[in-house]
């Protein structure tokens, strides 16, 4: 039998390795910026053209490299960061694998210039597809400049999988922001297509946050500091009243390295328990510092995952640090029985859809006292009348016109079988609302229960999906246009989805930087909290993008339906309930939401009888 196992050529091995390290232009940005930090640079420039597809360049004033080191850095597993196994468990630098430069050079055209501070001349290298094309002396200032052109030029399949410039630029902004936040003592600049996006001077962490995300962050930051023998936590958290519908501005750094950790995020969120409005996310930038031996960052090539030796202790300390910060800044109320009690102003209770059932009690009773947005119920609330009970037991009136309406609506159900269509055709005109969440409708063989919010989500989804398809949504102009200041990532996402937003009825224009002017919204949306609505849409859109593989229009239609259905008033009139049932069964797929959740359940009469017989 002939031998079939052989060594892969270096260029092919490098391309395979690049598949893990270099996934998109933002991956290159991350590796080059981290190299500049490891080189002890005090000033770093990032230059981008066409969202990194044409050019990515990082220029730093770090220690530079000798002629030999410049050549060696493009070899696989070549690094100055570690040399022994023990070093692997005491890592204090950003990079250590020795794969980044070799992987980048395998799938791009790279030009590097570098010069140590004490050298008279530097070195220039040109590498294409792992092959050294040119090496010669170069006159340049001290430091290193790495220019990456035509990413994936020799791997066209990978290049074809890159997203639009707006998407790729958003990922680059994410990486830039993380590195800039972790190193406020370093000056950073970012230019895209010859336009300056960021110019961040060296400063304190608080000033770096303001420079990155906007001056409105000055008033919402509360410092968080806790120092123990096990670890130290420092940084800033956002005050609950400034919580947003998107979770974009949430950053954890472990030994100055950005990490993604749902476990640590849970520690922060639970510390805010009872202080946040529903579906809101607090801002935080938190740094955790502990001995390198107590963590393992060699989990994934991107180095954004970390394992702690004692994760329960880390969780407890982070949770306690955030709790302490909330109390210290009078965000969470604290009691002092020996002196005056000073509470931070409490936010009014927010009821989903803007409806407060205590307001209803007050309207019926004609009185009641209010405190901090809370309306107290009357002492003797009005009871349901006997007439109301009689209506519950009112027999079904089978009307021929009603049956025809349900039959015609069921003709477009698609996934419902004929038997189910017969049940809905025999449904009672009268729907009953239970706990402001569910509707009960009597059908021929039993009772049909409808999840109110899920049904609204299905109806809205089909409405917006059709609108995006036909591009015929009517927009209502705002009496006073709203200027919305967004984060860099959210602003990039809005610009990326601009055609889809306009097809849906949103009218806005670029106001420069990360701001837009909102001039109009879809005609069927109430004009209120437009910024919050956009934030909710973007958050849902990003959640869908992570968990589902959808095109932009499908994703946006789902996001719009999900968010608007959660905003609708929970209590409905008889007319509204009946209209909801009618609209649901006019949908193509009435029995499921776009995400697969059931909108309705039918319980047979025999099942109801069995419940009581066995009770």
Short key terms for the protein model shown above:
single chain; 615 residues; alpha+beta; 22% strand; eight-stranded mixed beta sheet; Heat Shock Protein 90; Ribosomal Protein S5, domain 2; 4 domains; five-stranded mixed beta sheet
Brief write-up:
The chain is α+β, with helices and mostly antiparallel strands. It has 21 helices and 24 strands.
Walk me through what this model shows:
The protein is globular, with a radius of gyration of 30 Å. Mean pLDDT is 78; it is low at 334-423. Helix 7 runs antiparallel to helix 16 (488-496). With 615 residues, the chain is α+β, with helices and mostly antiparallel strands. Strand 22 and strand 23 form a beta hairpin. 37% of the residues lie in helices and 22% in strands. It has an eight-stranded mixed sheet with strand order 5-4-3-6-2-1-7-8. It has a five-stranded mixed sheet with strand order 9-10-13-11-12. It folds into four domains: 10-202, 2-Layer Sandwich (Heat Shock Protein 90), CATH 3.30.565.10; 206-328, Ribosomal Protein S5, domain 2, CATH 3.30.230; 352-383, no CATH class; 385-615, Ribosomal Protein S8, Chain: A, domain 1 (2-Layer Sandwich).
